[in-house]
Design goal:
Elements (H helix, E strand, L loop, with lengths): L3 H8 L4 H9 L2 H17 L1
Helix pairs in contact: 2-3
Length: 44
């Protein structure tokens, strides 16, 4: 399993995945995914 911080960096505002999603036209979809990620991280 990856370290928690490594995953959190990927999903952080202005993180690498968000930057790619916005420039590729799927920024809204990423926000939904990031919300699900945040909720999952709260449970562990």
């Amino acid at each position: 399993m990856p370290k928690r911080l490594d995953l959190e960096v990927l999903f952080a505002p202005t993180g690498p995945i968000q930057e790619v999603s916005v420039s590729s036209g799927w920024g809204e979809e990423f926000l939904g995914l990031a919300e699900r990620f945040d909720a999952a991280m709260k449970t562990i």
